[in-house]
Amino acid sequence: MDFSAQQIATFVQGEIVGDANATVNTFAKIEEGKPGCITFLANPKYAHYIYDTEASIVLVNRDFVPEKPIKATLIKVDNAYETLAKLMMLYEQSKTQDKGIASTAVIAESAQVGKDVFIGAYVVIDEGAVIGDNTSIYPHTYVGKNVRIGDSSIIYSGVNIYHDCQIGNHVILHSGVVIGADGFGFAPTPEGYNKIPQIGNVIIEDNVEIGANTCVDRATMGSTIIHKGVKLDNLIQVAHNVVVGANTVMAAQVGIAGSAKLGEWCVIAGQVGISGHLNIGNHVTLGPKTGILSSIQDGKTLIGSLPAEGKAWFRQQALVKKLPDMYRELNALRKELDELKKDKTN
Hints:
By secondary structure, the chain is α/β, with parallel strands linked by helices. The model has no long low-confidence stretch (mean pLDDT about 95).
């Protein structure tokens, strides 16, 4: 379906510079733009592409001033990146949603399935499960006993949701996600390790998205909780009884040990490790590969395997580069000092 620059500008409350009748039907990166595509410019590093792009329409910030003529039609908005995200969401919602239940799906008699759902081939929905309206469950997914999934959620292929877990509305679980596997609980004995039964569950609130092959373990007792609006990348481990605050985001390969509590609006970069039983405040930012061994107050930014606050960490890294020279200077000073001591004793 084609959309004109005028239609798009009206929807996003933007200002057109160029041909209001230019039409698009898909999206592209600015450096790969083709006729019929809409793209955007938000990062000044990519500004040089706007003069050569073949895209028909480019979203730009209102303060953008071109240095030379541009072939594409511009739509000026307050925030080009946010506007693109809004348009992409609209585009995604315009697609026809899959409906119906595959003949090879296995649904227990006691399970409840809502209206306008899609349940793909070889899906298994166990006893007592409840599936909300407009929810899509793709092939080879398992929904365990007494699981509850809300409305308008998307469960992609190969997801496993263990018994008694709760999934909210508008949740997206990507392929390979495991919700509610046993937490890592073992009691050491002289003969080995005895398993501690994990009798809790996992609660995932509304508008959460969890990336491929991420695992959220069930609680030993009570619940592991992922609060509303959280976004988890691929390959993340969330251990038993962890609580992740609303609107916190995490990049790939983060590991959170048991019973850690994370606040709201935190930003956790890739390969961060957080020890168990810690409290991480609200609006905390943790840089890549940061190792957290103690609780953190609200608003802190920490970086590094031996974490320090942002500016202090960068100063430390600058000094690390100078360590070989400093070591040579120290050895030279030590030799001079030894020679002075010899002269003094003589």
